[in-house]
Every structure is written in structure tokens, then in C-alpha cells.
Design a protein that fits this description.
Elements: H1 3-19, H2 31-51, H3 54-57, H4 61-87, H5 126-134, H6 137-163, H7 172-197
Helix pairs in contact: 1-4, 2-4, 2-6, 4-7, 5-6, 6-7
Length: about 210
């Protein structure tokens, strides 16, 4: 099996783990775990807003390929985290006009992507998003990478905060999802930094 095949198989296993309620005697999730999933869904949603700007504005094939990678991985992770929340009766986050599912034991959550932006690590401000949307070509490519690197670094802060919270991140499904988010963000940060340091015209390694 190729490396991409292993990754796809691991992601499928994560989906199965996340969708199943914890077995009797297994480590139970905490409110902090649910808040992490809810917050990361909102965080990922802004990354998708940023990648949606790329096709009409980017001049670098490397930026286009990186945006495609981010788009696929973060859509997958959003679906995974929403499934985890639903399986545990917790609120999901309404994105793109879809209603949230309201559980009986869910902590408070933002009910739209915009409502959860304030104070979230790495998030671009409305002014920065407007600036990005106003650019094209090399200027767009550079600002996209700069904002996305910071955005990814913010996700790493959120994972660290989860694991630094007493009792949180201990359930196997939570640990696996958070670890996958951390690994993906770190790998993409490294690639985007290389692109910024070098030529923005070359393709991003896959």
C-alpha cells in the first residue's frame, strides 16, 4: 500500500472511531473535548473561505496545489468533527446555512462561523480577509501564505490548549482527531514556509 493509501485508510478508521459512542469503561469525553471540536470547525471554516479565493486570484501553481490540499483535508476534518459531536449528542456548528444539531448535554457553541472568530488563535480579521480578496497575482500568493501559516499556527495553539486542559484529549477518538489536525497543520506550515522562502511559482510537494 502506498503512503497515500495508508493515510486514506487511517482517515477512514478515524471516521469509524469518531462516529461511535464510547464503549462502556472507555475514557469519556469532556466538555473541553466538545468545545475543541466546535471551535476547530469554526477555525477550519475560515481556512476554506481563504482557499475559495485562490482559483480566481493566485498566480502560483504551488499556491493552487497547496490550497487544494488544505481544502480537501479541512473539509474531511470538519465532517469528522461534526460526526463526533452528533454521535455524542453535542451541538454541531452551523456552517454554510446548515442548521446545528442541538444535543441535551452540549456546552455553549457558536452557531455560525462568523460568531466564533473573536479571540480564536490565528484567525484573520475581516480587514485582512477583505485585503486578501482585493489582491491578485504574486501579491495575493504571498499574503495567502502568510495568513494561512498564521492560521495553521493558531490551530496548533488550540490543540496544545486541549491537551493542556485537565482531563481533556484523553478519549481515544479525541486524541486521534486532535493529533491528525496537529500533524496536518505542521506539515502544511513547513511546506508553505518553504514556498515563501523560495519561488512561489513551483508546485508544492504532495
Amino acid at each position: 500500500m502506498t503512503m497515500s493509501g495508508w493515510k486514506k485508510a487511517a482517515r477512514m478508521l478515524a471516521v469509524l472511531l469518531a462516529s461511535a459512542p464510547a464503549a462502556a469503561g472507555a475514557q469519556q469525553h469532556t466538555d473541553a473535548d466538545a468545545r475543541f471540536m466546535q471551535g476547530m470547525i469554526v477555525h477550519h471554516a475560515q481556512a476554506l473561505e481563504m482557499t475559495a479565493l485562490v482559483p480566481d486570484r493566485a498566480s502560483s501553481e504551488g499556491v493552487r496545489l497547496m490550497a487544494e490540499r488544505i481544502n480537501v483535508s479541512q473539509q474531511d476534518e470538519i465532517a469528522l468533527m461534526r460526526r463526533w459531536l452528533r454521535a455524542r449528542g453535542a451541538d454541531t456548528v452551523a456552517l454554510g446555512g446548515h442548521d446545528a444539531h442541538h444535543g441535551h448535554h452540549a456546552p455553549a457553541a457558536a452557531d455560525s462561523a462568523g460568531a466564533g472568530h473573536a479571540g480564536m488563535p490565528g484567525m484573520a480579521t475581516p480587514e485582512e480577509m477583505a485585503r486578501l480578496a482585493s489582491l491578485a497575482g504574486a501579491e495575493f500568493d504571498r499574503l495567502f501564505l502568510e495568513l494561512m501559516i498564521r492560521h495553521h499556527e493558531g490551530a496548533l495553539v488550540m490543540v496544545a490548549e486541549l491537551f493542556g486542559t485537565q482531563g481533556a484529549g484523553q478519549a481515544s477518538s479525541v486524541y486521534q482527531i486532535a493529533s491528525e489536525v496537529d500533524a496536518d497543520q505542521r506539515m502544511e506550515i513547513e511546506r508553505m514556509r518553504r514556498m515563501l522562502a523560495g519561488s512561489l511559482s513551483g508546485p508544492a510537494s504532495q
